[in-house]
Write a structure and sequence with these properties.
globular, mainly alpha, 461 residues
């Protein structure tokens, strides 16, 4: 059992994915709670809940850009580490880990300097108004202090999961989120700090998570060691990391582009209240899609390890399981959102105007939600198998080529107004999800063509 826990080429493929998915999903839920808890508390501030929530929504593109660089190195390094482990190349796996940490630290310093220097023009470019800017600026001025902590904690936690220590990865995030949940009401309400208090609680929580991650990776239990030698830049390793991580980077940047286009268009056609509605809808989407994201993130180290070990039959098993489970779950999630829109939105805000206008928007935004599962699962396969070019292309296709133009054009067609913004998402789910899935099937067939992968299957599988 101890060998099977860290060797994904033996034992049940489904069991490996599920055993990783449960703690990883919990860890992701906890990670999301950093921002969700902020939204929940700020969305119920007395007297200014909608405007404060709108201000918080304006910070999302900045936070998304920070996460884009986290994904560039973290999501690029961790799958490569899994592949190297599958090939029993421990030295390369450790070089990948060390170079990832180096780039996370350097990019955090650059991002902090740029954001502080350009804070006001950035927020107005992203859709701020004179009324919402003070709330957004108050949050970001403090949140940016924690940039190194969130990048190291999130980016390096993937190397804990890549070694098979998913429970440890869950606990490292759980500790920080628990602190955030406790400190948020104290700072926001008891000390009267409002949105600034929410940011301060988040920074302290991220500091704890990052410290715990580094403590494990420098400790005795880890299978891979962080050393000074591995922190030295290795051009070949950095090139491989950024190539594979570019998919996650572009996915995050494209999400930021969508958020910017949505915020600016909604403010132009509907005012600040619709920016607040989009903030709530994004929050609901983050929560209900989380199990699907967790399952597919868990599949990536299993896919990478077995691909590196030449176990192609097991890779196919993993793909079949994750795609089927993802689609079935997202169908159930769509039904839940359709039947209970108001209770889901009330978790984040209780303003009557926001709820009245938000329920029809939610029904449009989540139409055909299950099709997103095809994109999520296919992207996981591309990343897990090291096919970064395909993952990058479909990230661009769905968000930049489909969603952003539709967000800008549909509100101006046939009098759709704000409804056109919310229609862009389901259209992209159907077109992008189907195209990505079909391409993934052909890509896998091409990779395994002429390889008798099933002969590698262990006895009993």
């Amino acid at each position: 059992m101890a060998a099977e826990e860290h060797d994904f080429s033996v034992g049940s493929v489904t069991r490996h994915i599920v055993s990783l998915a449960i703690p990883m999903t919990v860890a992701q839920l906890v990670q999301i709670l950093y921002n969700l808890v902020d939204r929940i508390y700020i969305g119920h501030l007395p007297g200014a809940s909608s405007l404060a929530l709108t201000g918080l929504g304006l910070t999302f593109p900045v936070i998304t850009i920070i996460m884009a660089f986290t994904n560039l190195f973290g999501m690029g390094g961790a799958p490569l580490c899994s592949i190297a482990r599958g090939r029993h190349d421990t030295a390369r796996a450790e070089r990948i880990m060390g170079n990832t940490l180096l780039m996370l630290c350097l990019s955090a310093a650059v991002l902090m300097a740029l954001c502080y220097g350009l804070l006001r023009p950035i927020l107005f470019l992203f859709g701020a108004s004179g009324d919402s800017y003070p709330y957004a600026a108050a949050y970001l001025r403090i949140y940016l202090i924690g940039t190194p902590f969130v990048m190291i904690g999130t980016g390096m936690n993937g190397f804990i999961n890549a070694q098979g220590f998913a429970r440890v990865g869950m606990v490292t995030i759980l500790m920080g989120a628990a602190v955030n949940i406790v400190l948020d009401p104290v700072f926001i309400f008891l000390l009267g700090l409002g949105v600034a208090g929410a940011a301060a609680a988040t920074v302290l929580s991220q500091l704890l998570s990052a410290a715990w991650v580094m403590r494990f990776l420098l400790g005795r239990r880890t299978l891979l060691r962080l050393t000074r030698a591995n922190l030295r830049p290795d051009g070949a390793v950095l090139r491989d990391i950024t190539r594979l991580g570019m998919a996650g980077f572009i996915m995050s940047v494209s999400n930021g582009a969508v958020q910017i286009s949505c915020n600016t268009t909604l403010r132009a056609f509907g005012g600040d209240v619709y920016v607040g509605i989009m903030t709530v809808l994004n929050s609901v989407r983050d929560v209900v899609s989380l199990p699907c994201q967790g399952l597919n993130n868990a599949a990536q180290p299993v896919l990478g390890f077995n691909y590196g070990a030449g176990q192609f039959g097991r890779v196919k098993q993993a793909i079949r399981f994750t795609v089927t489970a993802s689609v079935l779950y997202m169908l159930a999630a769509w039904l839940l959102v359709f039947l209970f829109p108001r209770p889901l939105m009330q978790v984040f805000n209780s303003d009557p105007e926001l709820l009245e206008k938000g329920v029809p928007a939610l029904h449009l935004y989540f139409f055909g939600f299950f099709m997103m599962a095809l994109q999520i699962a296919s992207q996981a396969v591309f990343v897990g198998l090291g096919q970064s070019r395909h993952a990058i292309f479909f990230s661009i296709l769905r968000k930049i080529i489909i969603v952003v133009p539709l967000t800008l054009l549909l509100p101006r067609l046939a009098g759709l107004g704000v409804h056109g913004v919310f229609l862009a998402e389901p259209i992209s789910n159907f077109v992008g999800g189907a195209a990505c899935f079909v391409t993934m099937l052909f890509t896998v067939r091409h990779l395994f063509r002429g390889r008798a992968g099933d002969v590698h299957r262990p006895a009993g599988e």
